Amino acid sequence: MNADYLKTKFDAGLNYPDYLKSGKPDQKEGWERIGGQVELTDAQRSMLAACKRDMNLLVVSGIWCGDCVRQGPMIQAIADAYGNEAGGTCSVRWLDRDEHMDLQEQVSINGGNRVPVVIFAAEDFEPVGWAGDKLLSRYRVMASQALGANCPLPGAPVPQDELNAELADWVAEFERVALLLRLSGRLRQKHGD
Predict the structure, then answer these.
(1) What is the pLDDT of residues 108-125, one digit of tens each?
(2) How far apart are CA 57 and CA 76, in angstroms?
(3) Per the structure, how many domains does the chain have?
(4) Which of 72, 107, 165, 187 is the most buried (most CB within 10 A)?
(5) How is the beta sheet containing 90-96 ordered, strand by strand?
(6) 110 lies in which domain range?
(7) Residue 131: helix, strand or coil by DSSP?
């Protein structure tokens, strides 16, 4: 995966409202319902607002996927809060996994085409890292409940404490990438800071 490839994929992606419109009405409703539950804490908002470097995200997703329904609104809310005070931006494009299998295959997890996968890239689309499928808090819940299914049904109720824990995991991943970008020798030289 190189910067040119990621830029091409980014240009082919959809913004969040258009991505939601690409699904069926009940799918969009599920994403919006979870979005209404997502609430960043003041500390999370403050940390995200202080991010200075621009970041690009490509989210390999499925509008039909229960994990995506739960995590997608979180990812977008975090991106929307990013850099609001420091001038950094977080531009996000959503890509349907099945329409971009060439990219999905490069970010498979444990040999599977899992979603969502977030690819973090610098302002010039140099890859920074990727994370996805389920984050630690979700795996902890699944392990404690000994769930048999891989993916909850889209629209299934999500307890607020589980949603908050998963949101905190995503915020921490954004912070990790933001700090990596801020401390990057390449970008510090480019921006003279």
Answers:
(1) 888 889 999 999 999 999
(2) 10
(3) 1
(4) 72
(5) 90-96, 55-61, 117-122, 127-132
(6) 3-191
(7) strand
